[in-house]
Please model this.
Amino acid sequence: MHLQAFGAARSVTGSMHLLEANGKRILLDCGLFQGHREEAFKKNRHLPFPVESIDAVILSHAHIDHSGNLPSLARLGYKGPIYSTFASRDLCSSMLQDSAKLQEKDLEYVNNRRIKKGLPLFNPLYSLRNVIETIQMFHGLGFDTPHEILPGIQLIFRKAGHILGAAMVELNIQEEGKNSRFVFTGDLGRKDMPILPDPYQFKTTDVLLMESTYGDRLHEPLEDIDKQLEDIIREAIEKKSKIIIPAFAVDRTQTFVYRLHKLCNEGRCGHIPIYVDSPLALNVTEAYRLHTEGLDEETIQFMVNNGDPFGFDRLTYIRTTQESKNLNNLKGPMIIISASGMCEGGRILHHLRNNIENPNNIILMIGYVAEHTLGRKILDREPEVKILGEPHELKAKVVMINSFSGHADKNELLEFLKGFDTHPGKIFIVHGEESQSLAFAQTLETMGYTNVSVPFPEERFDITQA
Ligand SMILES: [Zn+2]
Ligand SMILES: [Zn+2]
Model:
């Protein structure tokens, strides 16, 4: 058996790993690289293997940094299958269509500049047709349901508790008479998070491919969030601020809306109007309503008692561009939740452009932002940031609430490992900025874990069991 990490190796985005077993080649995730425009552009366009050499694709979850380059497989002639949970399939249907549109738009901007410079134009990374072809290749599987995907290779999706439908990938492999287990955490969620079930606890595995986004960091305790939010809302009401919240359309928006719903039920958010301005978030919210198999018991109980967790009288979902533009003319206080979370595209750019220079406004960051993204630049409070190609002074107040993270932090990652009966035979640390992954590997080594590696991109490992 061999393992090669093509993406999210000593970095966070572009999750993509190749597992070779029984003479078959299985691609784990096919995510989009985000960040530095030119570098991402090159990496996303050139897949590091011929697509016809891939026998099966397994998708851990629908986030674009894991699923966003699947349509490139279709564009290059891959004929399937792509295994995922049912919810991931439905989420990908909306999210990849949105991604195709975003990329076309993004390219419009790049191509306009190229026209001015007399340079040849680029084609989009993939088309809507490629997305539709991709969705047709999906095979939905339920959680905890074994399925033989290739001779001697059994796949079981286990709950990851990260977003709706997010799975850890368990592969039970029979190779040359030997049985071995391979586990890929995808993105590992957290216990006791709103909406989502707790992550599944494995007891043994021979090989563990593990994320490390927060390999060397801890989240703030969860109980502070409501108080922090209440304070920010009170400040906004006093100053008539607009609170601009860049949020991933998937999960972060639903979690946040559910939290606001509960806060408003407790009479803790005054009369502030709340707008969710993201057509994608609307479609994703529908998937959350539909896939109750992916919700936790508390949310189901809330539904039974209060009705829709994702809708209440103070909240307006914005669909059309005109409605979105109208928000500019409304006076604060108000909350605008819009995508994308890293501020790399979507309607959030317009809201930032219109509100970032007013010191009365508040930009509330509620999620992880990768290096080199506009979101990170705002979080780092750079005095001037470029939005849609134009420089803007960052005068609005920037606040971060870290605790909404859907990723396990250092202690939670360690707790997950301590839940095993025996140490995994080999551990590969991926999906973290290099410093996070290296620090986490070092922590594991001092705790007595052996065979811990932090792969370089494209580095190939023999993981045959002794
Ligand atoms: Zn994720
Ligand atoms: Zn991820």
In short: The longest strand covers residues 167-175.
